[in-house]
């Protein structure tokens, strides 16, 4: 079962940055790329739970602020040689800029 919730607008997130949102499944980081794509990842690095929302966004990756692992924004997978995966959620921007996050049970 899934549920969509509105979490603000695209303009609430700095380009190449992130904001966070609390969900029943924990805190998620909402990333915005240079090209205004948005991605939702659990705000916990798969290495040692670093806050990915405070990482550096480049292209479709975020670099964890603690030990520099690079995490793919669409899959949540750490890039080789590191291994691990962080949970992702579907997110979409509506034509008016409203962001809808899909919570999955
Ligand atoms: S906690 Fe993210 S790289 Fe170590």
How would you describe the overall organization of this protein?
- The chain contains no helices and ten strands.
- It is mainly β.
- The protein has one domain (16-89): Rieske Iron-sulfur Protein.
- Strand 3 and strand 4 (38-42) form a beta hairpin.
- It has a four-stranded antiparallel beta sheet, with no helix packed on it. It has a three-stranded antiparallel beta sheet with strand order 1-10-9, with no helix packed on it. It has a three-stranded antiparallel beta sheet with strand order 5-6-7, with no helix packed on it.
- 0% of the residues lie in helices and 46% in strands.
- FE2/S2 (inorganic) cluster (FES) binds at residues 45, 47-48, 50, 64, 66-67, 69.
Number of domains: 1
Taking the alpha carbons of the first and last residues, their distance comes to 6 Å
- Give the proportion of residues in helices: under 10%
What is the CATH C-level name? Mainly Beta
In this entry the ligands are: FE2/S2 (inorganic) cluster
Runs in which pLDDT lies below 50 for 5 or more consecutive residues are none
Mean pLDDT: 96
Strand content: over 45%
**Shape summary:** globular
Strand order of the largest sheet: 2-3-4-8
Instruction: Give the name of the CATH superfamily.
Output: Rieske [2Fe-2S] iron-sulphur domain
At CATH level 3, the topology is Rieske Iron-sulfur Protein
Radius of gyration: 13 Å
Query: What is the overall number of helices?
Result: 0
Query: Based on the structure given, which CATH architecture is correct?
Result: 3-layer Sandwich
Given the helix and strand composition, which structural class is it? mainly beta
Instruction: Count the E strands.
Output: 10
Report on the biggest sheet. Answer: 4 strands, antiparallel
